[in-house]
Amino acid sequence: MPVKTHIEDGVGIIVFSNPPLNPISASAGIPQAIEAALRTFDADPAIKAIVLAAEGRMFSAGADIAEFDKDPEAIAGPARRLDDVLDGLKKPVVSAIQGGALGGGLELALATDYRIATADAKVGLPEVTLGLIPGAGGTQRLPCLTGAAQAVQLITTGKVISAAEAHRIGLLDALAGDDVRAEAVAFARTVASDGRRRSRDQEISTEGGPEAIAEARGKAPRGAPGDAVRGALDAIEAVIVQGFDGGLKAEYGIFDRLLISEPARGLRHAFLAERAVARVPGLDPALKVDPVRAVAIIGSGTMGTGIALAVAQAGLPVTVIDANAAALERSRSSVESTISRAVERGRMSEAAGQAQRAFIGFSLDMEAVRGADFVIEAVFEDISVKQQVFEALDRLADAGAVIASNTSTLDVDRIAAFTNRPQSVVGTHFFSPANIMRLLEVVQGAKTASSTLARAMTFAKQIRKVGVVSGVCDGFIGNRMFEEYLRQAYFLLEEGALPQQVDAAMEAWGMAMGPLRTMDLAGQDIGWSIRKRRAVEQPDRPYSCIPDLICEMGRYGQKTGAGYYLYTRGGKPEVDPAIDALVIEESRRLGITRRPISDEEIVERCVYALVNEGARILEDRIAARPLDIDTVWVCGYGFPRFRGGPMFYADRVGLPHVLSRIEDFAGAYQGWAWTPADLLRRAAEAGTGFAALNGDVA
């Protein structure tokens, strides 16, 4: 049963259960069952007050996001009717909150008369992060309790706050100890004769509200990504101007409209996909592995230092090892400056900073790998250098230790063959800066043991990364696709576009940074090195000469002050006429008559190149599911989260349209790069989408 009830000395207690996070799911019958129990208790003259509680560690994480593609009425209707019933009760209701009340879970608590929570509980209305607004009274009831200005800040940011903060601003009525249910019962007895305190009946404090609303409107992202913020502000304004009933009607209409919007669909997919990637197809979910307890990192460069910071931030001891004393000292200095800046800017306390410092050790001796159960190689991206490191690790690393390579493109199977324990070798491709970027590609070699793979995925979770499993190929999932994305960007330059137009078009579409600015940030020399290797290995796949010409000028991007752009004022890119001239001259050398290129063509060519290569990656079984590809690109490459990922976006556009445009491009300049993937063609002709290959995302 989703709801159990009992009575304690005149207090009716309702306990709902929908493990593990107790979503207020209509399909599970939660709001309907609570409503029935409330009506029964309200009709019983022996009951003076009611307590609403939940089983498990959390009151409720909100609505069930997996249900959000249904009709808005089916999703929100039962919860809204439950709130109406709460408003009409004759007896006070107290919510007993443990763990957390988020989204629809907090809305339910807001509809009760009183709220009491454990001191460690978290509360919030994070709907805007999913392209929505609270849809069961949250935008109306919260301002009644906290005032308009505070409600604006919480709802438009989706911020989750502590119980202490919620109590301070009036959202909670009391804080409890460990037995919140018992304290809620005692609280209910006390207030039983005090009269009702419905949130909707309390006068809203508008002090600072108009200013907060105006400021939030100014900060809202332009276009569709900001629709949820603007919708929330409209709903809050409605309760101030029209009163509770008028505001509630406005909220319902805005929520229902946003629920079926494309940005909300994309954000929901990204949210669910990010959680689904942890369930690796073919890996037994019952397989238990020990968590990582100590880490060693070979290499003290930018990546090694960043990985060490990420590990320390998660509270794990880590040793950075490098035979170069000067390099090791630079790493130590970088760690210190990063932690000191975070403390100075208030991002962490001095005590937390000291704890992080204590977790990171440095050594010149490779013998320091002993005792580590997870060893990460993070040396220069050269196979001969990797060989030296892995042969040494094979001798020195503890038996049973995972030996991981941070390679971004090299063959993990070849690297594993440098050891006598290939079953213990896995790829862990971090993204720079490793202490900030959330993605971790976990590369499964041909001989990687299931336990090694499971341990690597557990490690990703321990250090708060989103681990996505990839097979072995040049570039794995992300960089293999990025190569085709860049290829089109360079060909667009040869045909008629200029760097600033390509970047501006992609950024206006939603990419965090355009492709050419991205390479300036990453370092043009890194791509140059990879192109030199691939020119030998793949001579039949030509590249544009433009990025090589830029590198030959010593322009490696931001670190040298010049790449496609000049960086002379605080790292901001400035258009350089010399690069425009270089691009135009290269078109002349190639005999190309430059033509006007629309922003629409730029977007289609760059994005559909990703989609086509993504389909090939699925064919080659490098990625298990389209959602794995989407998560890589959303979490690691700045793909707009509100578009869900390249494969999800292709489904929304329609695969027949994508195929048609690819066939158009195949008949134009450098058409060899546009051979449609067989999987894409089959899916388009069959009228199915990539989503059919995802299985159960929820």
UniProtKB/TrEMBL annotation:
Annotated pathway: Lipid metabolism; fatty acid beta-oxidation
Regions crossing the membrane: none
Main location: other
Domain 3-hydroxyacyl-CoA dehydrogenase C-terminal: 475-567, 602-687
UniProt-listed CDD domains: crotonase-like (cd06558)
Annotated keywords: Fatty acid metabolism, Isomerase, Lipid degradation, Lipid metabolism, Lyase, Multifunctional enzyme, NAD, Oxidoreductase, Peroxisome
A biological process from GO: fatty acid beta-oxidation
Location within or outside the cell: Peroxisome
Limits of the 3-hydroxyacyl-CoA dehydrogenase NAD binding domain: 295-470
One protein family per Pfam: 3HCDH_N
Reaction catalysis annotation: a (3S)-3-hydroxyacyl-CoA + NAD(+) = a 3-oxoacyl-CoA + NADH + H(+)
Presence of keyword Plastid: no
GO MF entries: (3S)-3-hydroxyacyl-CoA dehydrogenase (NAD+) activity; enoyl-CoA hydratase activity; isomerase activity; NAD+ binding
Residue ranges, annotated region (Disordered): 196-224
SUPFAM superfamilies: 6-phosphogluconate dehydrogenase C-terminal domain-like (SSF48179), ClpP/crotonase (SSF52096), NAD(P)-binding Rossmann-fold domains (SSF51735)
Family: In the N-terminal section; belongs to the enoyl-CoA hydratase/isomerase family. Belongs to the enoyl-CoA hydratase/isomerase family.
Protein name according to UniProt: 3-hydroxyacyl-CoA dehydrogenase
Species in which this protein is naturally found: Xanthobacter autotrophicus
